[in-house]
Each structure stands twice: as structure tokens, then as C-alpha cells.
Structure prediction request, 115 residues.
Amino acid sequence: MLLELPRYPRLVNDESEETIRWPDFSIACPHCGNRGEEGGEWEVNAWSPFKLVEEVIRTWLFVPLREEDGSLLLVADTGSDEVDWESGANLRFECMQCFGQFALPEKVKVDFDSA
Ligand SMILES: [Zn+2]
Prediction:
């Protein structure tokens, strides 16, 4: 017998995403009009109608080399990859229906829950 995978395998908080009535929160994509309605096209792409997106800074150690034609080649050491999570900037929504991005409302708090 095959185990049925839960539709929402990872819960962001105690409340199952299944119980979230997204349209009640008036988050609407200005590009395609997605409001997170149940059965919407976004369900094909993700478990949640919207994602939060931000830019963080990654850094690598690298070695400079000379190519045969004299141009510069930088070889980045992927083992030295560091992500500066504190550098997060430009937080915004990504619509999981059209993948367009749009600004958060002005009055919103974001709590990064690492449960
Ligand atoms: Zn959209």
C-alpha cells in the first residue's frame, strides 16, 4: 500500500495551511489577480499561494587566474560559501500563480519563525 503524502507537508506554524482562508487576508497579486482562492491555478505550482522573497548576500573566497588570452578568471570556492542572513533586504511577495512579485502592505509585521 502506498503511503499518501500529506498535501501540506511542512507547517509554518501550528495552524495547518489547509485551514487558512487566504482571500480573507486581502493579499492580491496585482499582475494576475490571484488571491489564494481554493482551487486556484496557484495550487499547481505550490502549497501556498504566495511566498516571501528577499535578497541576502552570499560571499565566497576566490582565486584569481589568468586565462590564455590574458583575461581574468575568478575561481570561487563553493566550500567557502557563506550566507549573511542578517543582510536580508527588499522583502516582497512572490505570486505562485504567475510568479510576479509585489510589495508587502505598509502595515505588516513579519515574524521569521524557525520552528
Ligand atoms: Zn500573480
In short: The longest strand covers residues 82-95. Strands lie at 50-59, 62-66, 72-76, 82-95, 101-103. DSSP finds no helices and five strands in the chain. The two ends are 32 Å apart (CA to CA).
